[in-house]
């Protein structure tokens, strides 16, 4: 089974014989060429900004904290490019908007490692 992933749009290539056994979620468009089925998934996820993070917080800590509220597809603490230390903020990506809004409403203004964190929807 071949997989080809690119950006926010996920394109997956399966042989047509195995494609019928696969359950996929998300918005789906598919194209059939000879013996391959090309499936394009478009994920709509919410990006969340988390500010005033302690310098000890890493990507995995951020992901673990938000997993209590739903599925986390990406977690990233932004680091200084020269020193490699945390810049004190990060981003979370959650595919379910309801879960993301619940996380924002619950965690915004809460304390983590002794600091009051800011949690908001991130705008691109």
- Bin the strand percentage: 35-45%
Q: Categorize the overall geometry.
A: globular
State the major sheet: 4 strands, antiparallel
**In order across it, which strands form the biggest sheet?**
1-2-4-3
Low-confidence spans: pLDDT under 50, at least 5 residues? 1-42
**Class derived from helix and strand content:** alpha+beta
Q: Count of helices?
A: 3
Number of strands: 10
Helix fraction, binned, reads 10-25%
Label the CATH architecture of the largest domain. Answer: 2-Layer Sandwich
What's the gyration radius in Å? 18 Å
Write down the overall mean pLDDT.
77
Can you tell me the CATH superfamily of the largest domain?
RRM (RNA recognition motif) domain
> What is the CATH third-level topology name of the largest domain?
Alpha-Beta Plaits
CATH class wording of the largest domain = Alpha Beta
How would you explain this protein's 3D organization?
Helix content is 19%, strand content 44%. It is an alpha+beta fold and 124 residues long. It has two domains: 2-42, no CATH class; 46-121, Alpha-Beta Plaits (2-Layer Sandwich). Strands 1-2-4-3 form a four-stranded antiparallel β-sheet. A four-stranded antiparallel β-sheet has the order 6-7-5-10, with helices on one face. A hairpin with a 2-residue loop joins strand 8 and strand 9 (115-116). The radius of gyration is 18 Å and the shape is globular.
């Amino acid at each position: 089974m071949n997989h080809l992933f690119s950006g926010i749009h996920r394109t997956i290539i399966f042989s047509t014989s195995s494609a019928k056994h696969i359950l996929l979620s998300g918005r789906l468009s598919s194209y059939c060429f000879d013996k391959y089925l090309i499936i394009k998934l478009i994920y709509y996820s919410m990006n969340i900004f988390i500010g005033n993070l302690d310098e000890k917080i890493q990507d995995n800590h951020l992901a673990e904290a938000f997993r209590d509220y739903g599925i986390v597809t990406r977690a990233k603490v932004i680091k200084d490019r020269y020193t490699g230390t945390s810049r004190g903020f990060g981003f979370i990506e959650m595919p379910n908007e309801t879960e993301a809004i619940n996380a924002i409403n619950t965690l915004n203004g809460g304390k983590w490692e002794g600091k009051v964190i800011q949690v908001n929807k991130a705008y691109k």
